[in-house]
Amino acid sequence: ALNGLASDGGLFIPQEIPQFSPSVRSSLGTMNFIELAFETIRPYVHEDIPDSVLGDMVESAFNFPAPLVPVDDRFVLELFHGPTAAFKDFGARFMARSFAYLRRNEDRELHILVATSGDTGGAVADGFFGVEGIAVTVLYPKGRVSPLQERQIAGLGGNVSAIAVEGSFDDCQRLVKSAFVHPELSRRLNLSSANSINISRLVPQSVYYVAASALAKSGRYSQDGKATPRMRGTGEGQRAVRDGRLGKDVLFCVPSGNFGNLTAGLYAQAMGAPIAGFIAATNINKTVPEYLASGVYQPRPSVATISNAMDVGAPSNFERMTAHWSYEELRKNIHGFWVDDEKTKETIARVFDTSGYVLDPHGAVGWTAVDQWLAAKEDPAHPFAGFSGPVAVLGTAHPAKFAETVEPLVGPVPVPPSLAEAMGRTVQSVTIRADVEALVETLLTLRS
Fold this sequence. Notes:
The protein is of the alpha/beta class. It folds into two domains: 61-84 and 199-416, Rossmann fold, CATH 3.40.50.1100; 90-197 and 423-446, Rossmann fold (3-Layer(aba) Sandwich). The chain contains 19 helices and eleven strands. The chain has helices spanning 22-27, 33-45, 51-61, 88-102, 119-128, 147-154, 169-180, 183-188, 199-217, 236-243, 260-271, 287-294, 318-324, 327-333, 341-355, 361-376, 403-410, 417-423, 436-446, and strands spanning 68-71, 74-78, 110-115, 134-141, 160-166, 191-193, 250-255, 275-282, 334-338, 391-395, 430-433. A six-stranded mixed beta sheet has the order 1-2-10-7-8-9, with helices on both faces. The chain has a five-stranded parallel beta sheet with strand order 6-3-4-5-11, sandwiched between helices. The protein is globular. InterPro entries: Ser/Thr_deHydtase_PyrdxlP-BS (IPR000634), Thr_synth_N (IPR029144), Thr_synth_N_sf (IPR037158), TrpB-like_PALP (IPR001926), TrpB-like_PALP_sf (IPR036052). Pfam families: PALP, Thr_synth_N.
């Protein structure tokens, strides 16, 4: 975890994915979120983090809800109630606490280098801000994140620095990977990563899959979820269809970019969570949906979209997926769909009109992918033709983070207090070209 990447630039993966014990598996539906978090993470860390310390970590890190909210004929798993209003808070907050513990006897400063397409940078900056002995530098594509995201990334100061890269997220990610194998940097700086290339970011994200699937399997969902604004009642017919699916394994639709979130779901499923399968929903950066359809993996430069956190043409976590599972296994378990910007906007407006629920652009990509999946499974030959369980779309970010896209379609969206505070920050960043030597020079200057 502290190294982030292997010395050859490869990703760390579990030697084998641990399994829930029979007693834990039979009790999943009776545990609360903190108890589920403990049981999910413990098998990965029990040799390094005592149970008492781990218990305190999960209680402190996951101090906000992740409600499974009913909307129309499906559910939305809302993952945006943390301090930066994005699902990345789950991984970043646990990572910050685990790093601080694992380094408790270290004198040399740890330097975390992270690339972001939008939400990761803000979550990592917030999670590690003020943590003693750890410095953070976030690389983000200049002009390709929202104004709010940029203030979350580059507005804290202190032990958090920001670099705006003249290029794409893929360029940022390439620079981070290059930094880890650069001899001068490895000698001068004690580097680690907080991207989903770091396995310690993924494992805590498995928790909400376990919790939501266990809840639905037990025939329940969150009645008290603080859903996004102005959600009206759902029609009786749709409610009956939706609620009639409870008590069965869940199909999760995952808005996907670097595919860390979906990989975390695959780990949860392999551990024994009651998960039927996955829909991988991307924007027009459709590398993985095309792979699932053809068996051919063709990474390419990313294209900018309104769902910018998913603008990834060469997803790093594809390596983890194919290390654990064959193409045939992935194809049967994951159904890939892609959605363009026009359809994304259309879905935001339509869902608000029918239910009053406000989707952000990434959630709208997921919602549209479910629509496409439902149409496709009418074919008797479809692998999930007979599926009758609940479908849950992951709500990965609060719509207020993308007000410039969402508000013209649905009207004003109330802003959570944490986001209102971030909007008042001043951006403090350095701009560089997408070049390794430019990054090296800047990092050594920032951390000298």
